Amino acid sequence: MAKTKIVSTDDILLMLCKSVTSVLTTATSNEIGYSAMVQKINRTCLKPDIGCFVLFDGGFSGLVVINFTANAALELYQAYLSNMGIPKEELAVSHTSDEVGNVLGELMNQMIGDFISNVGKQLQTPINQNQPKMLTINKEVLLSINTNLDRPQARRVTFTTERNNIFYLELAMDKTEFIQLHEFEQHEDFDPDDILEGEANKRAAIAQNAAAEKAAKDQPSDSDNLLDELGI
C-alpha cells in the first residue's frame, strides 16, 4: 500500500523560502540563500531598518513578514535595477528613499505571487494575498492577524545575500496538514515570454518559406531558357 503523503506547516514554509530565493535570484542575478535551521517564534513583528508584510487567506490564512537590514535592502534594490539596465549613478544610495521601499514591495509581491501559484499547483487549494505594505522604521512593531487562527504557529528564517547581508522572513499561519487522497498531475506554468518567442519564430519561418517559394517562382525554368536562346 502506498504511503500517504502529508504536507505540514513546515513544508509550506519551505515552499515559501524557495519562492523567495527563486524570485530574488532571478530578479537580481545574485545568489540568495537561507539557513538550514528554522527558528520557532511566539510572535511576528516588523523590525528595523525596513519591514514588509502581507496577509493571505483562502484555503488557509497567514501573515508573511520580511525584515531587511539597510545594507540588504540597498543591495537587493540596486542589483534589481542594475539587472534591468538602470545606470548606477541613477540609483538611490539611502535605504530610506521611497524608491527603495517601492522596489522591495514590488519584489515581495512577486515572491508571494510565486508562492501562491505553487500552493495552488502542489496543494490544490487557492489562497489570495493583499497588497504588500512596506515601512521604514527604527523601532520594533508587533504584528498580529486580524482573524482567529486555529493553533497558530510562527517561524523565522534567516536569508543571506551574495554580499553576506542579512534579512529575515517570518511566517505565521494555522498549524495545518494537507493529506493527499489520490494521485494528480501538476500543471506546468506557461511563460508568456516563451509563448511570444514561439509565435515570433513561427511567423519568421512562415515569412522565410514564403520568400523561398517566391524566389523559386521567379527563377526561370529550363523551357524559358530554351525559348530565350531561340529568340522566341
From TrEMBL:
Signal peptide: none
Family matches, as Pfam families: DUF3334
Region (Disordered): 208-232
Record GO biological process: chemotaxis
Annotated keywords: Chemotaxis
Record protein name field: DUF3334 family protein
